[in-house]
Write a structure and sequence with these properties.
The complex is a heterodimer. By secondary structure, chain A is mostly helical. Helix content of chain A is 82%, strand content 0%. The chains are: A mainly alpha, B alpha+beta.
C-alpha cells in the first residue's frame, strides 16, 4: 500500500514537471507570436504612413496636372482648329455596307 | 476636462490633414479625370507671443505673402495670442522656403484642401463642401453631398498616435463595422460637358435669358453625359458669391411649366390608350371654352379639320386639349403620373423637387386640357427629360443617374444598375417618333434643319411664366424649351434645353433650334454615329 502511494506521488511529480515544461513552452511560443505580430503591425503601420504620404504627394501632383489639362483642353476649340488650317468637309460621303439579306438568300440557293 | 486631456494624448493634432474621396469624369475612351480631389500644401501661421521683430519678419516674408504690412503688424501686436493665421493654401515649395527662413514665431504648417481642377465645369453637378450643422466639413451641394457617406474619410486613423493606431485596428478587424468609403466615377464626358456649357453660354449671351440649362443623356440607360445650368459658379473661388442660391442645381431643384414639348407625351397617351390613331383627324376651331375659361392656339386661329400630325408640326394647343379630353381625365392623369410627374426621379443629386401637379387631380376639363400642352403643371428639367426619354427608348421609364461606378478604398468596385420600367408599348412610341421626325424634316424652320442622313425627332416649347403676385401669367415673359433625340429609330442621345425669359424674341424655335442642331452635329461627329437613313 505504501509502495502504491509512493508511486502515485512520484507519477504526480512527473506529471507536474511535464505541465510546467508545457506551460513554459506555451508562454515562450505565445510571447514569440505576440512579438512577431506586434513587429509585423509596426512595420505595417510605418509602411501605411509612408504610403499615405506618397498617395497625398501624388494626389497633389495629379490635381495640379488635372488643372493644367482642363485649362489646355478648354483652349482647344474649333476656332483654334480653323486658325491652324482645319477645314470643315464640304461634301460628306458615307460607305454603305452590303445588306445582310443578300447573303441569306445566297445561302438558300 | 480629463476626457479632453486623454483625447490630446490619443490624437496628433499637428498632423491631422483633411482627407476625402475623389470625383471623376470619364472620357469616351474610358480615361478618368479627377474633378474633385485633394491638394497638399501649407498654411502660414504666426505666434505673436514669441515673435521678436515683426518688421524684420514681414520683410523676410513679403516675397511670399499676399498680406499688407499693416495687417501683418496688427496680427503681430496681439502679444497674448499664440495663433494667428496669415495665409492659407500656400504651395509646397513656398511653405518649405518659409520654414527654411527659421523665423521664431512664424511657421508654415502642413495643410490639405479640396480642389476642383475643372473650375466651373459642371459645378452644380459636382457641388461643393462646406461646414455642416456640427461644424464639420462635409458635402453641401451636388454629388459632394449626395455621396457624402462614400467620399468622407474618418480622420481617426490618420490622426491617431502611433500606438493608439497599432491596437485600434483590432476592433475594426473583428467587428467590421466601418462603412465602406471610396471614389466615385461619373458618366459625365468632359468634352461633351464643355461643349454643352459653351453652347448654353452663347445662347444666354445672345438672348439675355435670366437663366438657362441643358441635359444630354442616354435615353436607354439614364446615364447623363452632360448637364449644366447658368448662372453658375467656380467652386475654387467663392469669395464673390453673394447669393448662395446659385449653388443649388436648378435642373433638379426648380420646377417650370414646360409648354409644348409635353404635346408628344399627350399624343403618346392618346395612341396608347386607343383614344386616337395617327391618321385620325379633328376639327380645330382655334379656341375652346372649358369650365368658363377660354384656351386658344398660340395665334388664336382656327385650322378646320386637320390630321394629328399637325398638332405637333404646328404646335396646336387646341389639338392637344382635344386629345386629352377624348382620353378622359382619369386615364390622362394616370398616364402622366406613370411618366414620373409629381415624383422624384431618383437622380443622384440632393434636394430634388417633385414639381407641382395638383391640376392632374382636379378632374376639371380645363386643367386636363392645359396640362396636355404643358401649362398648369410644373416639372423639373430632370423630370421632363426622364418622361420624354420614354419616347426614345421604346416605352420605358428610366432612372437618370450621374455616377456609374463606385471604387471603394478596399479595392472593390460597384457598378450602378440601370433600371427600366415598361410604361407604354413600343409600337406607340414608334408612331410618335415618326411624327416627331416629320416635325424636324418639314416643320421646324420650314425643314431647313433636316439632316439628310440622320433621322432626328424633336419638338419645341414656348410656355407662359406664372406671376406669383397676380397668380396669373406674365404677358412678356416666356420659357423656351426644346427636346430631341437621335438617331430617331435607335437613339443614342436625348437632349433637353431650356431658358427662362429670353429677351426680344417670341418662340423657342427661334432661340433653341440652332443650338440643338449644333449639339446634335457635334455628338454625331464626336461619337462617330453612323447615318441611319
Amino acid at each position: 500500500m505504501t509502495q502504491i502511494i509512493a508511486d502515485n506521488i512520484n507519477s504526480m511529480f512527473r506529471y507536474k514537471e511535464k505541465v510546467f515544461v508545457f506551460l513554459v513552452l506555451g508562454i515562450v511560443i505565445t510571447a514569440s507570436v505576440y512579438i512577431f505580430l506586434v513587429q509585423k503591425a509596426i512595420v505595417n503601420v510605418v509602411e501605411r504612413e509612408k504610403i499615405t504620404k506618397e498617395i497625398r504627394k501624388r494626389s497633389t501632383s495629379v490635381s495640379e496636372l488635372e488643372t493644367k489639362y482642363f485649362s489646355i483642353k478648354s483652349s482647344v476649340n474649333i476656332e483654334l482648329a480653323h486658325a491652324k488650317g482645319f477645314k470643315d468637309a464640304e461634301v460628306v460621303s458615307y460607305i454603305s455596307k452590303k445588306p445582310i439579306t443578300a447573303f441569306v438568300s445566297y445561302n438558300e440557293l | 476636462m480629463y476626457s479632453e486631456k486623454a483625447d490630446k494624448q490619443y490624437i496628433k493634432p499637428s498632423t491631422v490633414l483633411f482627407s476625402r474621396g475623389s470625383i471623376f469624369f470619364q472620357s469616351k475612351d474610358g480615361t478618368k479625370n479627377a474633378v474633385a480631389t485633394l491638394k497638399d500644401g501649407y498654411t502660414l501661421v504666426m505666434n505673436p507671443k514669441i515673435l521678436k521683430d515683426p518688421n524684420n519678419a514681414y520683410q523676410a516674408l513679403s516675397p511670399y505673402l499676399n498680406l499688407n504690412k499693416d495687417s501683418f503688424i496688427e496680427k503681430a501686436s496681439k502679444v497674448n495670442d499664440q495663433y494667428e493665421e496669415l495665409q492659407k493654401r500656400l504651395d509646397q515649395s513656398t511653405g518649405q522656403s518659409i520654414n527654411a527662413l527659421r523665423i521664431l514665431g512664424i511657421n508654415a504648417v502642413k495643410d490639405s484642401w479640396r480642389i476642383y481642377p475643372a473650375d466651373s465645369l459642371a459645378a452644380h453637378t459636382i457641388g461643393l463642401i462646406g461646414y455642416d450643422d456640427k461644424n464639420k466639413i462635409a458635402g453641401r451641394y451636388g454629388l459632394e453631398r449626395y455621396y457624402e457617406n462614400i467620399l468622407t474619410r474618418q480622420t481617426g486613423i490618420a490622426s491617431m498616435n502611433f500606438f493608439a493606431e497599432l491596437f485600434s485596428g483590432i476592433k475594426n478587424s473583428v467587428f467590421k463595422n466601418e462603412e465602406k468609403t471610396g471614389d466615385i466615377v461619373t458618366s459625365i464626358e468632359p468634352t461633351v460637358e464643355e461643349y454643352l456649357e459653351k453652347t448654353l453660354e452663347e445662347v444666354q449671351d445672345k438672348w439675355s435669358s435670366d437663366s438657362i440649362g441643358g441635359i444630354i443623356m442616354d435615353p436607354n440607360t439614364g446615364l447623363i453625359y452632360a448637364m449644366s445650368a447658368r448662372p453658375t459658379f467656380n467652386p475654387n473661388d467663392l469669395k464673390d458669391i453673394k447669393d448662395p442660391k446659385v449653388f443649388s442645381n436648378p435642373l433638379v431643384e426648380e420646377a417650370y411649366e414646360m409648354g409644348s414639348i409635353i404635346k408628344p407625351l399627350t399624343m403618346m397617351v392618346g395612341i396608347d390608350s386607343g383614344a386616337i390613331k395617327t391618321d385620325s383627324t379633328y376639327i380645330d376651331k382655334g379656341f375652346l371654352e372649358l369650365n368658363g375659361k377660354k384656351i386658344a392656339n398660340f395665334d388664336g386661329k382656327a385650322r378646320g379639320e386637320i390630321p394629328m400630325q399637325e398638332i405637333l408640326s404646328q404646335s396646336l394647343n387646341i389639338g392637344a386639349a382635344t386629345i386629352a379630353l377624348k382620353i378622359g381625365g382619369d386615364t390622362f392623369s394616370n398616364y402622366f403620373k406613370k411618366f414620373g410627374f409629381g415624383q422624384k426621379t431618383g437622380i443622384d443629386q440632393p434636394n430634388e423637387q417633385k414639381g407641382l401637379t395638383k391640376n392632374l387631380d382636379t378632374k376639371r376639363d380645363i386643367e386636363i386640357a392645359t396640362a396636355s400642352y404643358g401649362q398648369g403643371i410644373s416639372m423639373t428639367p430632370m423630370q421632363t427629360i426622364r418622361a420624354l426619354s420614354i419616347l426614345a427608348n421604346g416605352g420605358n421609364l428610366i432612372i437618370p443617374h450621374i455616377v456609374n461606378k463606385i471604387e471603394y478604398t478596399d479595392g472593390t468596385s460597384q457598378m450602378i444598375e440601370n433600371i427600366k420600367t415598361p410604361i407604354v408599348s413600343k409600337e406607340t412610341v414608334d408612331e410618335v417618333t415618326e411624327m416627331l421626325i416629320q416635325v424636324v424634316d418639314k416643320a421646324l424652320k420650314k425643314g431647313q434643319v433636316k439632316m439628310e442622313n440622320y433621322s432626328i425627332a424633336a419638338k419645341t416649347g414656348t410656355a407662359q411664366i406664372a406671376n406669383p403676385e397676380t397668380k396669373g401669367y406674365y404677358d412678356d415673359r416666356f420659357l423656351h424649351s426644346f427636346f430631341g433625340y437621335f438617331p430617331a429609330h435607335n437613339p443614342r442621345f436625348i437632349i433637353f434645353l431650356y431658358h427662362v425669359n429670353p429677351k426680344n424674341v417670341n418662340f423657342a424655335s427661334e432661340t433653341l433650334t440652332d443650338p440643338f442642331i449644333k449639339l446634335t452635329k457635334f455628338l454625331i461627329n464626336y461619337y462617330e454615329i453612323p447615318p441611319d437613313r
